[in-house]
Specification:
Elements lengths: L4 H11 L21 H22 L7 H12 L9 E2 L2 E2 L4 H14 L3 H26 L14 H10 L2 H17 L3 H12 L9 H11 L2 H25 L1 H8 L19 H4 L2 H23 L6 H17 L6 H11 L5 H17 L16 H7 L4 H15 L6 H20 L18
Antiparallel strand pairs: 1-2
Helix pairs in contact: 1-14, 2-5, 3-4, 4-5, 5-6, 5-7, 7-8, 8-10, 9-16, 10-11, 13-16, 16-19, 17-18, 18-19
């Protein structure tokens, strides 16, 4: 293979740098401490903390899954390693092993009692809100007053401190992982992301956009190393079960074919139950999910790289070139040139891609139970302000979604309305102009890439 200076330059341009179709956003001269949203966020945290502990003190706890969690954890602590035998009031354990370790710690801290567990989850709620506010402040998408929307959900407060669902733990870890990704700590972010998956698998809805961002931000070797770290977390956490009863663990903890009960569906209650539980409906939703993801990836997230196919081809060419030059004297020059020309993703592009990718999964989910609202509520204001809808329309959409999630039990009208609201938001995201994905210039950093 003949490698000349011009050939090398062309490959570098195609493999690493993509031609952007619009200029980068103007950089703000305002420092982080001068951001006027900081005092608003602090005041919001204090007010919400008071509100959370008033809920714990005066609103009756609703028994749903806590006792079942404790039964499953006690079986694990007593030495049971067969997932088929770890059961509770609601049935067999269906979560990966990380759930057991975390709720074992909760059992140790609370003695299995509800009231101290509520206090613990109240603290978890505030920690999650701190992380979410940091994400919002650092992306600067919402106006200062709209941050208050993050504390206005009756259902989310209930999910955390009156229901004690493991969704709360999983989403707190996910938001922590996202904050790390925003600071380009990709390897550590993937480890925390894997930890979130080990608590509940809904976090995998973020996996496709995360993989795309990794391919943009790192070379192939970095991507594989980060994925290996995430896989290692799953192996280490599941090791006691993988060694003793591997099939029972994998089939129980990672069952992607579960069919949820039609009665509890918040989003597709208007679908007749025979259709709801049918394989054809599941395949239709899966196809819609994949097509929508691919469309957003091609026309929105990779627009500045010339589309998804061109971007993936550029990464493939880069991988081939790196392999071809590995034993060549030009390898060091090639690596140095690549390192100097690698582009850094903006925080806003990372958050937008992750939140929109998850929301697509929410729209196409066959069944959303009430606790699943925590999967995307904290991204909802961000998503609404990424659309070009007027502020009044954004607020109506926000209130409409919240209303649908607070109707119990769900009915044909509420579930139909929720789906329509989701589709309106999705259309707003599709029709909005994509932000510039790359930082224009930034000094070299020794951070984890």
């Amino acid at each position: 293979m003949e490698i000349g200076g011009r050939r090398l330059k062309n490959v570098e341009t195609m493999a690493v740098g993509s031609v952007t179709q619009s200029g980068p956003p103007p950089r703000s001269n305002k420092t982080y401490l001068e951001n006027p949203k900081i005092p608003i966020a602090v005041a919001l945290l204090i007010a919400d903390a008071v509100f959370v502990f008033l809920i714990i003190a005066f609103v009756p706890y609703t028994k749903i899954d806590w006792d079942a969690y404790m039964s499953q954890v006690k079986g694990f602590l007593e030495g049971e390693r067969d997932y088929r035998n770890l059961k509770g009031d609601t049935g067999p354990l269906v979560y990966p092993a990380g759930f057991l370790y975390i709720y074992s710690a909760f059992l140790y801290l609370t003695g299995g009692q509800v009231y101290p567990a509520q206090i613990l989850f109240g603290v978890l709620y505030i920690i999650n809100l701190v992380i979410v506010l940091l994400i919002y402040v650092k992306t600067d998408v919402l106006p200062w007053w709209a941050l208050c929307l993050l504390s206005l959900s009756k259902r989310v407060h209930s999910i955390f401190v009156l229901r004690l669902f493991n969704d709360c733990v999983a989403m707190t870890l996910l938001h922590a992982a996202l904050l790390l990704l925003m600071h380009r700590r990709w390897n550590l972010g993937l480890i925390v992301f894997s930890g979130a998956v080990s608590v509940k698998m809904n976090v995998l809805l973020y996996a496709p956009p995360l993989l795309l961002l990794m391919l943009k931000a790192m070379d192939i070797g970095g991507v594989l190393l980060a994925l290996a770290g995430a896989a290692l977390v799953q192996i280490l956490l599941g090791l006691p079960f993988l060694v003793s009863h591997p099939f029972a663990y994998i089939s129980g903890a990672f069952n992607l074919g579960r069919v949820f009960i039609h009665f509890w569906s918040v989003n597709f209650k208007f679908i007749p139950e025979p259709v709801f539980v049918s394989k054809g409906f599941a395949i239709f939703l899966l196809a819609a999910h994949l097509i929508t993801l691919a469309s957003f990836a091609h026309y929105r997230w990779c627009k500045h790289e010339g589309g998804l196919l061109k971007f993936l081809h550029s990464r493939y060419v880069f991988m081939r070139m790196r392999f071809a030059l590995f034993f060549s004297s030009a390898f060091k020059k090639f690596e140095k040139s690549i390192s100097s020309s690698i582009k850094i993703l903006t925080k806003e592009h990372i958050v937008t891609t992750m939140f929109v990718g998850n929301f697509i999964g929410i729209v196409c989910a066959r069944s959303l139970h009430y606790q699943f609202y925590s999967w995307y509520f904290h991204s909802l204001p961000y998503l609404l302000w990424k659309t070009r809808y007027p502020t009044l329309v954004r607020l109506i959409l926000f209130m409409g979604v919240e209303l649908c999630w607070n109707i119990y039990p769900s009915n044909n009208i509420s579930s139909s309305l929720l789906l329509c609201l989701h589709l309106i938001i999705l259309w707003g995201l599709w029709s909005a102009p994509p932000e510039h994905p790359y930082v224009e210039k930034e000094p070299p950093s020794h951070k984890d890439k």
